[in-house]
Amino acid sequence: MLDAGIKEQLKAYMDKLQQPIELVAAYDDSDKSQELRQLLEELEPMSDKISLRTEESNDVRRPSFAINRIGTDIGVRFAGIPMGHEFTSLVLALLQVGGHPSKAAQEVIEQVQELDGSFEFETYFSLSCQNCPDVVQALNLMSVLNPNIKHTSIDGALFQDEVEQREVMAVPSVYLNGEAWGQGRMTLEEIVARLDTKSDEKEAEKINQKDTFEVLVIGGGPAGASAAIYASRKGISTGIAAERFGGQVADTMGIENLISVPYTEGPKLVGAMEQHVKEYDVDIMNMQRAEKLIPAAKPGLAHEVRLANGGSLKARTLVLSTGARWRQLGVPGEDEYRNKGVAYCPHCDGPLFKGKRVAVIGGGNSGVEAAIDLAGIVGH
Ligand SMILES: Cc1cc2nc3c(=O)[nH]c(=O)nc-3n(C[C@H](O)[C@H](O)[C@H](O)COP(=O)(O)OP(=O)(O)OC[C@H]3O[C@@H](n4cnc5c(N)ncnc54)[C@H](O)[C@@H]3O)c2cc1C
Questions:
Q1: Cα–Cα distance list, 202 to 43, 190, 205 (Å)
Q2: Which of 249, 282, 325 to mutate to test the pocket of ligand 1 (most atoms within 8 A of CB)?
């Protein structure tokens, strides 16, 4: 299942396990179960802190497996085989359940640990979805940090009946305690902010205490990041307020037209962009949606930007770099059926339309590429 090079790398990672973990496998008689058995039997000998046993309960999806920290309530479950884009999620889950610390900010870790209540998450992913690992990894980490949080990641292509019954037509799709909860790419911070009912209030309070900026950039895509770097390099006090730092680039897989960089990937470029901005004294305020702009009453006074969480920021100069959004067709049902038949990512969501009739709207480069890719999966 794993080639020699990967095995060697994985073994080196497994040396970092600090606490014993067990892999608890639920098989059936499918070919996929055979593949899963092979994978788990290859993982077990990689560390003497890993053990493998079969699941006794009948109340779990098959094929699936749990990774549990022995002697605790901490664990995560994968239904299906987390290869493809989810392989990193598997490696991180093994490490984190095994006590290896995460790189998440301490403030967010504490916020997760303080979450009260019982949260049973299920995430549907596809192995070709590049946005899914972020969600899978965030929820896995949360269940490692807080035993009140449980998470199962499910390969939608393998559990078609379930996907049909729940009308899952886009990935990642997240269910919480049996109810549809969220769709699309979400960061750990975004998930925590939605669960922490007081987070808006706390954020608004922090925001309101900020001094007036010389330059405030609204939007954290490449344009906003460049504007902030330029302003800050001149010694001007600068802030960025962005609904989602990174912008569209975060959703891009391969980028091959950034001169001097023959190939990079969106999330990697966003990471580098953030690092670059942090080289300067720029106040990055992520997950802040601007809702209203109140221009200065007269020259020399500050403009005010009101945010969705109730906070407000002041600045003498504003740079608006709010980029682009998916274009709407304006046809009836488009909003109601978003992610329930109306999809925007052929690579991510294509496998969920296996055997179905699909129309691609738009015949430019992206439309033609989508049609060619989908033709290999869908009915027509
Ligand atoms: C799938 C895909 C693939 C692509 N591939 C390539 C490629 O290979 N090469 C290439 O050159 N280009 C590519 N592009 C285009 C490229 O990503 C965009 O041209 C670029 O991101 C535009 O940058 P921007 O900063 O102007 O806006 P965006 O990237 O759109 O960023 C807008 C920013 O504003 C924020 N924002 C919006 N509204 C508000 C609000 N009310 N309050 C606060 N913040 C707000 C957003 O959260 C975001 O941070 C691709 C785009 C997509 C979607």
A1: 43, 14, 5
A2: 249
